[in-house]
From TrEMBL, chain A:
Entry's localization field: Membrane
Any single Pfam family the record assigns to this protein: Tetraspanin
Protein's recorded name: Peripherin-2
Organism in which the protein naturally occurs: Fundulus heteroclitus
Membrane topology qualifier: Multi-pass membrane protein
UniProtKB/TrEMBL annotation, chain B:
UniProt xrefs under CDD domains: peripherin_like_LEL
InterPro entries assigned: Peripherin/rom-1 (IPR000830), Peripherin_LEL (IPR042026), PRibGlycinamide_synth_CS (IPR020559), Tetraspanin/Peripherin (IPR018499), Tetraspanin_EC2_sf (IPR008952)
UniProt keyword Transmembrane, yes or no: yes
Similarity remark: Belongs to the PRPH2/ROM1 family.
Species of the source: Fundulus heteroclitus
Name of the protein: Peripherin 2-like b
Compartment(s) of residence: Membrane
Presence of the UniProt keyword Oxidoreductase in the record: no
GO biological process: purine nucleobase biosynthetic process; visual perception
Membrane topology: Multi-pass membrane protein
Amino acid sequence: MPFMSLKFNLQKRVKLAQGLWMLYWLAVIVGIIIFSLGIFFKIELRKRSEIMDNNESHLVPNLLILLGMLSCGLNAFGGKLCHESLDPQKFSKMKPMLKPYMLLSCGFNALLLLLVLLCFLMQFAVYLTLAEGLKNAIRFYKDTDTPGRCFMKRTLDMTQIEFRCCGNNNFRDWFEVQWISNRYLDMSNDVVKDRVLSNVEGKYLMDSVPFSCCNPGSPRPCIQHHLTNNSAHYDYDHRIEELNIWNRGCHQAVFSYYSSIMNSIGALLICTIILEVRLHTGLHHRPLQPVGM
Amino acid sequence: MAVGKITFTKTEREKLAEVLWLLNWISVVTGAILFGLGLFLKIEIQKWQEVMSEQGILYVPHMLITTGLAACGINYLGSKICLDCADTNKFLRWKLVMMPYIVCTFFFTACVLAGALMCYSVRSQLEESLYLGLRNTMRFYKDTDTPGRCYLKKTLDLLQIQFQCCGNADYRDWFQIQWVSNRYLDMTDSAVVDRVRSNVDGKYLMDSVPFSCCSTLSSRPCIQHNLSNPAAHAHYDEQSQQLNLWRRGCQQALLDHYTGIMQSIGLTVLLIWLFEVLLVLTGVRYLQTAMENVIRLGDPESESEGWILENSLAETACYNFNIIKNLGKCYQVDDDPNINVPTAAADREVPSHQVRVNVAS
């Protein structure tokens, strides 16, 4: 009878060790996924850094990359530990490394928790940076001849087309800035001169929007100019016209995109924490009675 | 004299069978790749099917899809056969299936080659289809209230934005059609009425383009109207004109896009065909002939010969041609030796002898 019970324990332990080893390698794959998500997020932030004034914070993607690599290393080592616990000779060599490894894993889990909190809190920073950045982008739209700002027009046009949005909060933001450069205005024209003089700061303001605000789904050709003047266009009422240009502001559109990325990363990190805790409790209980003894 | 004769020892035969088993599994994977490529091409064509006048080029992805599925099935069967071929007893099970299987593989590789060649030959048909389709789409651009055409405006706008193109061949194609619907024209305005009357067909034509033709690379806000008259705009010089709108025609843009995709797919399919013919088909033929010769010799341990064709190419062609010629022929009396045809010698009667039978009393 005692022999039988030992044998049962041995089989069960081997099975447990194998299951744990597979979970460790699953954790390594999750670590690789976290690493690649960090790179993806960094690239997405870089792509649109021009509309965020080039001072967006790269803290979250950098931490993701670091923790992804750390996770791969730690979990690979944990898997090796599991594998060697099946052999009593190798296990006795490994035993002194166990305690520092467990401490490192606890530290790693704490870092993961911190990163989850950052994922949800840094969204406020992104919100504020976007508001400021878009305001400046609209102001510098016309400065295609100023070094450092010559691609602002292209970036903002492509953003409005891609995210299907217009202006910062809505299309009326374009009414408050001069988005046509003086180079392309005929200053000898009386209408132009009147409009410039009627404004306190000497800006050429109009109730028009750039072409990138146009909605392709509109049944009529796009009306870009004299948007608030119903009589300028046949059969047009600006209060009920909804499909002509995009109604959403780019601030809300771009922020909801980044917000969804950060929320998904946060959810994945929570799952990773649960997996890691499960692995470490498993490893903690195992080495007290190694297989074969 | 046999074509490509090689002698195989027993171990060589077994090794060949194992290698062919692996190659057949790889072919199942390449068959799945063929299927995936066909599906991808079908989806790409259907994405912009509204700007094509006919869906004729869909036969290319359909061919790839069916060939891919056939590849998976035939090569899965092949892997089972090849695994059993290592052992002479198990081979006997498959003996009758081997020849049909090889013939099927030969025809299916011919289909793969046809699929690859189709990918390269479809360009002129695509060009014609795109030209007619885009012309019609531009004509119906304004008909957003006609059922069946209400989404053509959105499709064409998105096409011009995504592929960075304008019009069919050039942006000037928009000057020749009325792309503003009469619903949005003020017919009481004398300028509008003049313009409509001055045109033979009563169409409202202008030298303007839709907003989707505007280039995002331009350094000045987009100029859409009065394009034939550069003096109407302030400082509208040659360089501004070049960057203002997309210069490429949408027919050329789409043609380049699809030709690029189909050339890559065609190259991949050609490589798969080479792999199938040179490795799998040849290997299976050698294995089949080697195993049949072993059975003919009677000794499973002995060496046997394998070949691609038993006789030279000309003799095999003649032989097969004769088989096909005789397939339709009716039963011939002269040829069959089993029929008792009465001849002159049979007229003589053979006398019967008495046979003594000893009966035990």
